[in-house]
Inverse folding.
């Protein structure tokens, strides 16, 4: 039996990954034009809250992967607007 298969540890790791991704989004918001920042922050917060009660590990992994894609897209877009 692997230590990673422990539900408690797996949950802890997933929550840590979600928090890290949320912080990455908020750091990226700082690159946005000031007139757009609050709206972007609200949108990010809303998306994370919408899925905050998700407990299925496979779905959380999917959401994290989607979040990573969106993070990269947002980063590219914000760099183009500078």
């Amino acid at each position: 039996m692997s230590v990673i298969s422990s539900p408690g540890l797996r949950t802890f790791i997933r929550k840590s990954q979600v928090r890290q991704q949320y912080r990455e989004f908020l750091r990226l918001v700082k690159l946005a034009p000031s007139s757009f920042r609050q709206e972007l922050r609200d949108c990010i917060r809303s998306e994370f809250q919408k899925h905050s009660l998700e407990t299925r590990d496979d779905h959380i992994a999917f959401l994290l992967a989607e979040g990573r894609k969106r993070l990269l897209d947002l980063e590219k877009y914000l760099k183009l607007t500078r």
